[in-house]
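Retry 2 of 3 after timeout on previous attempt. Resubmitting structure tokens to design endpoint.
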């Protein structure tokens, strides 16, 4: 499924110098495009490491926002497959606390 271009913005990857895309503006739309629940997808992304292409972006006076490189989106899709194959591997956050 192709991603909505409105979700992807080009940026410079400071580590490798290669052009990357960061998805940081609307995780609900990303979840909808992937056909997943937003809370579940957030829990999956929390299992990813920076080496998997995910970072937290912070602004002045803002909460952090998850952001993904192109590689990070590929990894996220692989993580989704892995956790769907064995849901017991995924640590879920209790959002009622």
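Retry 2 succeeded. Sequence:
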């Amino acid at each position: 499924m192709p991603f909505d271009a409105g979700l992807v913005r080009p940026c410079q990857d400071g580590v490798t110098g290669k052009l990357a895309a960061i998805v940081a503006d609307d995780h609900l739309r990303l979840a909808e495009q992937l056909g997943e629940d937003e809370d579940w997808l957030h829990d999956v992304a929390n299992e990813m490491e920076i080496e998997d292409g995910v970072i937290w972006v912070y602004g002045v006076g803002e909460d952090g926002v998850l952001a993904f490189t192109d590689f990070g989106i590929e990894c996220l899709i692989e993580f989704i497959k892995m956790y769907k194959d064995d849901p017991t591997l995924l640590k879920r956050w209790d959002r009622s606390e």
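Attempt log closed. The mean pLDDT is 74.
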